[in-house]
Structures are given as C-alpha cells and as structure tokens.
C-alpha cells in the first residue's frame, strides 16, 4: 500500500508482489518463519532460484545463469525480499536485514563495497547480424502498415516498448518529423523529443490515413484491429506477440521488442556520435548505461587499434627503408 501510494508503476508493484509471494512460499515449504529467517535461509532461497528450471522449458531463448533463470531475474527476485525486511525493521520486528545491501567496508577494493548475495553479471546487449536483420525486414515487409511503422519508429527513435505503445496522436510533429516521449511513459521519468527519418514519415502518413478508418478520435496512436478489442489502445503484450511472431518467422528467436533500441544506439556509436549525444537521444540519466553501446560497437577499440597499427606500420617501413645502416644494426 505504501509503494502504491508513492506512485510506483502498477507493473512494478505486481512484480514485487509476485517475487515476495515466491519467497514466502519457499519459507512455508521449509517450515521457516519469514519474520525470524536468517542469512542461511536466504541462501537456501538463492540456491533454489539458481537451480530452478525455466517455466518456458524448451522455448527459452537464452540462459546466462547456468540454470533456468537469468542472472537479472534472480537479482530482481531478491529486491522485494530485501524491501520486505526493510519494512520489518521499520516496524521494529527485526534488528537487521538478512538480505542486506552493499555496505562500505574499509580496506576493500572498489570503494569498499561488499559483494552481493549473487554475483551480478554485466553482459553487452545482443544485436542481430546484418543477415539476421535482413531476415527480419523481409518478414516485416508483409506486415500491416501499423506493425511496419511501429518497427520503424522503435529503431529510428530507439524507443522502449512502453514508450512506443504509449505514443499519442498529439505526441507527433510531422512537420519537423519529431515525436515527444512523455516522462510518465519512460523508465526513468525523463521526457525527451526525438526525430525520425523521412522513410518512417512516409509510413507514418500511410498509417494515420489507415487509423482514421478505425477511429477519428484523438488519443492513443496505435490501435488494436482485432475483433475483440477493435479500436482499443494496443497493449504491450499484443506488441510483444507481434514481434515474437516476426522473429520466429525470420528464424531469429533472440529478436525482441528491445532489440531495435539496442541496434539503433549501437549504430549511432558506430557512426561516431559522442557519448553525451547518444545518452540524450536514448533518455539515459547516467552515461554508464550508454557506455555499453560504445563498447558493443567496438568504436573506441577500433580507433585505438587503427591509430596504433598506423604508427607501427610507419615505424616498420621507416626501418626497412632506412639508409643509415639502422636496419642492419637491428637485424644483428
């Protein structure tokens, strides 16, 4: 109730509730009182998470934890448990939090930060190869105009899924080919204005004309065309199903609604955009999030390698063509 009153997103509340329910169920199965549980009991819960088979079974796309849950999912499951014990401490029912968080310890490396319960894996985003991207485009060409313009915008403006599906008709500025991403739809509540290409603008004009046949009312830009929800705002889950279907038809199962954002930001890094420009375009408050795309593009490493090889190449040529006997001296 406190988190709801503070205005946290409903999906965040739902995710925390499910995570806490899982932990309480584990305590019940192990005859453990969650109020008095200690760090050893938390360790048992972590072990259960790391060995739990994935609910998708054979349909799971990728696994990075060595078991059935991704490392990020395991980290997410521990957050509501930690918050639960924070609440119990505030209520005076406990003196300490068995989950805890990084505490400063003098003498430790990296600023004295204590290691978390589960090592946090930092992986670069996955992006498709050129051949895989062409496969996606080949399938997308046969899609209705709504799906095509959504894919184009998702890439052009590096939009997250919620940002894309939450666009409204008054967020568009066709004259300047820009769109406004409202703060309440973003991950970090940071509003921004981003451009889109002329090609996407042509698709957008076609979709606006098509949308008028579904509804002339202002409001959500992308509407459902199904019999059950005809004219209703397109949901996140419907868009995820559309992208999943395209990915499977193209033979690229790892392609998701977030892949277009990763691909766009990586392409901007490859084109030589400055770090802060990419961060502004992406809506990142912290450039640490943006750095992963610089790393993924290999731009800095490639530039350094090219400069270094150019210097070494020039030095070798100079040595080979030297007429003062230096080459012979070196060979001896």
From TrEMBL:
Keywords: DNA recombination, DNA-binding
Domain Tyr recombinase intervals: 123-306
Pfam families: Phage_integrase
Domain Core-binding (CB), chain residue ranges per copy: 1-89
Highest taxon of source: Bacteria
Keyword DNA-binding in annotation: yes
The protein's name: Integrase
GO MF annotations in UniProt: DNA binding
Swiss-Prot/TrEMBL GO biological process terms: DNA integration; DNA recombination
